[in-house]
Amino acid sequence: MKNEIPVYDISSISSFRQEDIFISRFGIYSINHKHLHYAHRHNFYHIVFFTEGSGTQAIDFQNFEVKPYQIYFMIPGQVHSWNFDGPADGFVVNFSATFFQSFLLLSDYLEKFSFFGGIAEDSVLNLPEDAGKEVFAVFEELLKQASGNKKFSVDYIRVLLLEIFIKVSGFTVEKEEYYVSSYNYTALKNFQQLIEKNFTTLKLPKEYAELLYITPNHLNALSND
Predict the structure, then answer these.
(1) Span 47-67, mean pLDDT?
(2) Is residue 205's pLDDT more than 90?
(3) N or C, which end of the chain has less CB nearby within 10 Å?
(4) How far, in Å, CA of 187 to CA of 191, rounded?
C-alpha cells in the first residue's frame, strides 16, 4: 500500500557538514543504505549519476534499466527503489528543498528543467559518452568541495550543481512543446503536489479536480498529455 512506503528526510542520512546537502560516491552510499534499495520516498531532491552498474531502478513504480552515464533526478515525494545485478558506482547528491532558496532570485528556478518536473520518464537520462565525461568531471569537483572546508565552498557546490543541470538540459529534448500552455503546466504541477499531500484521504479524480477548480475531464486531459 502507498501509505506504508517509508519517507526519509535528509537529516537521517549523514552529511559532510550540514543537513541540507549530501554528496558521496554512489558505491559507498549504496552499501551503507541498504534500506534505500526498497521502495521509499524522500522529502528532498535526489540525483544519481551512474559510472558503472546494471539492473533496474523504479521511479514512481516505472522501471528503468541502469547503465553507465545514466543520470536521474528526483523531486521530494517521488517513490524510488533499486534492483542492481551487481556492484554499481557513480555519484549521489541529496539536497533539501531550501538549499537554493537563499542563493537564487527565482524560487521556482529548478522547475525550468524538465527533469525536475516530477514525471518519471523525463527524469532518467542516458548521456552520450562525451557528455557523460563532461558531467563526470563536474561531479568529481563536487566531491572535492564537499570533503573540504574552504570559504564559500557551499556556494561553489551550488554553482557546480547548476552547471550540471544546465549541461544535462543541453543534452535533452525540451518538453515545452508538450505543454499546451503555462496554465496547464501549472495545473499539472499543482495536481502532483496535491496527490503527494492527500493520497491517503482523496481517491477520486473529481476530488482533485474540485481542489484545482477544473473539470474532471480537463484533469484527465492534463494527465494524459
Answers:
(1) 96
(2) no
(3) N
(4) 6
Go through 29-42 and write b for each residue having 16 or more CB atoms within 10 A of its CB, e for each that does not.
bbeebeebeeebbb
Q: What confidence tier does 214 reach under pLDDT thresholds 50, 70, 90?
A: confident
Distances in Å between the Cα of 36 and the Cα atoms of 25, 32, 80, 109, 175 are: 15, 9, 8, 28, 30
- Angle between helix axes 205-212 and 182-198 (nearest 10 degrees) is 120
Query: What are the angstrom distances between the C-alpha of 172 and each of 46, 84, 189, 225?
Result: 19, 25, 20, 19
**Residue 49 region, left (φ>0) first, then alpha (ψ -120 to 50), else beta?**
beta
The Cα–Cα gap between 148 and 167 comes to 24
Rounded CA separation 44/36 (Å): 14
- The whole-chain average pLDDT of the chain stands at 85
Cα–Cα distance, 96 to 43 (Å, whole number): 8
Query: What is the model's pLDDT at position 173?
Result: 57
- As given in the structure block, the three cell numbers for residue 101 are 532558496
Facing residues of 73 across strands?
A: 47
pTM, rounded to two decimals: 0.77
What's the grid cell of residue 76?
521530494
140-181: pLDDT as tens digits: 999 999 887 778 889 999 999 999 999 999 887 544 444 345
- Residues in the chain, how many? 225
Query: Rounded to an integer, what is the distance from CA 17 to the centroid of its chain?
Result: 22
